[in-house]
Amino acid sequence: MLPVLLLTALGALTATAIPTTTPVDAVSVLSARAVSPDQTCGNLKAGANKGYTCPGTAACCSSYGYCGTASDFCLTTAGCQTQFSNSSSACHAPKSGVDVTIDGTCGSTGVGKLGYRCAANGTFSACCSSS
């Protein structure tokens, strides 16, 4: 049922509920958000209750409220905000040997449990050490 305001013959407004043949998906209606004009997103930190969705060119909304495409934006282990990212598949679990470390661990033995790889620029110098 959809609430509808009707104008009667005498000019008064009346409210009525009209049955619909197609159910309204409230989730999809409520989830439409404005695309970020400034690379901020979500409702946390930099997003500060703006509620923007990330653009396709920077699809992931980080836990810090910024849009981007690197591991620290897109990994679920880094707190990627799926509901404010550009698509439901933008945020993802770490892919072993593919995603750059977000916490200094790497590999899948020892302290490296998630299969992160080292950054190409050597940001974490002890990454994948023998310890």
TrEMBL record:
Alphabetized UniProt keyword annotations: Chitin-binding, Disulfide bond, Signal
UniProt domain Chitin-binding type-1: residue ranges: 38-93
InterPro entries: Chitin-bd_1, Chitin-binding_1_CS, Endochitinase-like_sf
Disulfide cross-links: 60-74
Pfam families with a match to the protein in the record: Chitin_bind_1
PROSITE patterns: CHIT_BIND_I_1, CHIT_BIND_I_2
GO MF: chitin binding
Matching Gene3D superfamilies: Endochitinase-like
Annotated signal sequence range: 1-17
Keyword set includes Disulfide bond: yes
Protein name stated in the entry: Chitin-binding type-1 domain-containing protein
Organism, scientific name: Schizothecium vesticola
Source taxonomy: Eukaryota, Fungi, Dikarya, Ascomycota, Pezizomycotina
